[in-house]
Design goal:
Blueprint: E1 2-5, E2 7-10, E3 13-21, H1 36-65, H2 67-81, H3 83-96, H4 100-116, H5 121-125, H6 127-142, E4 154-158, H7 163-168, E5 174-179, H8 187-194, E6 199-201, E7 213-217, E8 222-225, H9 229-252, E9 266-271, H10 277-282, E10 288-292, H11 294-298, H12 306-319, E11 324-328, H13 356-361, H14 363-377, E12 381-386, H15 392-411, E13 420-425, H16 428-432, H17 434-438, E14 443-446, H18 448-456, H19 474-489, E15 493-496, H20 507-513, E16 517-520, H21 525-534
Parallel strand pairs: 3-4, 4-5, 5-6, 9-10, 9-16, 10-11, 11-12, 12-13, 13-14, 14-15, 15-16
Antiparallel strand pairs: 1-8, 2-6, 3-7, 7-8
Bound molecules: phosphoenolpyruvate (PEP) and magnesium ion.
Magnesium ion (MG) binds next to helix 18.
Length: about 525
């Protein structure tokens, strides 16, 4: 097993045999000629034939890589018409009385050097295009037709691939490609990205690798040749999960979460920090059903300021462009500890000073967070959610603090939009109080992780209890059903944001109960959508 590192131009995994492409290296000989006008005519004919080829390549690229990517061949046609290219060839033929092939090859070398010497990386990327058009004209002059034919699914390895070679490759058989040279901005790299082909540049192999089994790891930026069984199995699994994801994206992006008999459900995503946000849009979630705001606190040595929090909430709210963003207020304590909170040591932290209990006992911390959330409300569709509720009075108290903060901000003239207010249902006490609680809030979100822990009296952190832990325990399922029923009596929206929401064995049941929303980790959004649509 040998590993070669390079620069990845497109992530993803490719597994297959290497096809090492050695260009014919068109040998151009310098020949003296006497009939200069005839040689110039030969060059112009070859140039026009090359332009015709480019029309065909353009059509092929439009079909396989899209209009934008095909434009490179329009650029190549323009380069063939460019005076600096044409005049250089004419001059060399006229002044040196040499054959057109030699004049084109000399022009190619000169322009290649000029482009490679430029500061701008994009312009350096154009040097490959000069090579491409020149080689094409030389092929026409010499009657050669350099082609790159793949006979089996392969990873292509070459010193450098020019765009016309990339697009000629049979897409069905091309698994990925690796080049020894090339720049990240070359059109070949751009095409690879747009065609979703794993590709690496800047690889330095130390021997002939033709025909060997290889794995491109576009995430790590390396290629492993002659992989051992363990590595191969690991990369096959990675590839399978990529393929599943791609298939789901292709099939399901932009589609509704609707069953075949027309029942709809919202599928949202859970995040910890704004850096998770790109995965939410990438996976087409309809909103953020749980922003675990405590991660903003856990990453720090001291309390995050109002401004820091405002920036984080605002960026997510804006990014979601009006789709709901449910920000759960601080759920610190139990397994999520931050020293600077200086919480007392407790016998039973999971049942101790945590979440809303800290916020109600230490309102100064709570108010800072609520100010940041309300200020951010102006930039999107923010919902506020209180965690670990067991009693009605806690909700009333939290809401009254929220009102106080709102009034203060209004007096300061800070613009605020209306926010929905909801609670987590994650204790059996809350479940039993759902009728009363539903009248007090706009929405519920069922936290099945804690609800299961407290219902089954099983510490969710303790792996030794795995045999007793039952994610599908009827007690928990009955509580979910009851919560939905009581919520809907008051027109209260109800979602599930614990891990159970992503359990596709239960999707049908949740829809039967009438759950309005499932909020899952971003990578599960499309899997759950697929399940819903299959019902
Ligand atoms: C839950 O308890 O189900 C939940 C979503 O909250 P957390 O996992 O953050 O406790
Ligand atoms: Mg919880």
């Amino acid at each position: 097993m040998q590993k070669y590192s390079g620069t990845s131009v497109f992530g993803g995994v490719a597994i297959g045999r290497l096809f090492v492409y050695v260009k014919d290296g068109q040998q151009v000989r310098r020949t003296a000629i006497t009939d200069i006008p005839a040689e110039i005519e030969r060059f112009d004919k070859a140039r026009l034939a090359a332009k015709k080829d480019l029309d065909e390549l353009y059509e092929k690229a439009v079909k396989e890589a899209g209009q934008d990517n095909a434009e490179i061949f329009t650029v190549h046609k323009m380069m063939l018409e460019d005076d600096s290219f044409k005049d250089s060839v004419y001059n060399i033929i006229e002044e040196q009385s040499v054959n057109a092939e030699y004049a084109v090859a000399t022009t190619e070398d000169n322009l290649y050097e000029i482009f490679m010497g430029l500061e701008d990386e994009y312009m350096r990327g154009r040097a490959a295009d000069i090579r491409d058009i020149s080689e094409r004209v030389i092929s026409k002059l010499s009657g050669n037709n350099a082609t790159l034919t793949l006979y089996e699914p392969s990873i292509v390895m070459a010193t450098e691939l020019v765009p016309s070679e990339t697009v000629q490759l049979d897409r069905e058989k091309l698994l990925g490609f690796v080049t020894l040279e090339g720049s990240k901005n070359s059109h070949t790299a751009i095409l690879a990205r747009n065609m979703n082909i794993p590709a690496l540049i800047g690889i330095k192999p130390d021997k002939d690798l033709n025909g060997k089994l290889a794995v491109i790891d576009g995430y790590e930026g390396c290629i492993v040749v002659d992989p051992d069984e363990e590595y191969l199995a690991k990369m096959q699994a990675k590839k399978k999960s990529d393929d599943d994801k791609k298939r789901l994206l292709l099939e399901l992006k932009g589609k509704e979460n609707v069953t075949s008999d027309g029942r709809k459900i919202d599928i949202y995503a859970n995040i910890g920090t704004p850096s998770d946000f790109p995965f939410v849009t990438e996976n087409d979630a309809g909103g953020i059903g749980l922003f675990r705001s405590e991660f903003l606190y856990l990453k720090k040595e001291d309390f995050p300021t109002e401004e820091e929090q405002f920036t984080a909430y605002k960026s997510v709210a804006m990014g979601m462009s009006g789709k709901p963003v449910v920000i759960r207020t601080l759920d610190i304590g139990a397994d999520k500890q931050a020293d600077y909170f200086k919480l007392d040591k407790e016998e039973n932290p999971a049942m101790g000073m945590r979440a809303i209990r800290i916020c109600l006992k230490r309102p100064e911390i709570f108010k800072t967070q609520l100010r940041a959330i309300l200020r951010a409300s102006n930039y999107g569709n923010i919902w506020i959610m209180f965690p670990m509720i067991i009693s009605l009075w806690e909700v009333k108290k939290a809401k009254s603090i929220l009102e106080e903060v709102r009034r203060d901000l209004e007096i300061e003239g800070v613009p605020i939009k209306p926010v929905k207010v909801g609670i987590m249902i994650e204790t059996p006490a809350a479940v039993m109080m759902t009728e009363e609680l539903a009248a007090e809030v706009d929405f519920f979100s069922i936290g099945t992780n804690d609800l299961t822990q407290y219902t089954e009296a099983i510490d969710r952190q303790n792996p030794k209890l795995a045999d007793f832990y039952d994610a599908h325990h009827p007690a928990v399922l009955k509580m979910i059903e009851m919560t939905v029923k009581n919520a809907h009596k008051h027109g209260t929206y109800v979602g599930i944001c614990g891990e159970l929401a992503a359990d596709t064995e239960l999707t049908e049941k949740f829809i039967e109960y009438g759950v309005d929303e499932l909020s899952v980790s971003p990578s599960m959004v499309l899997k759950v959508r697929e399940k819903v649509r299959s019902l």
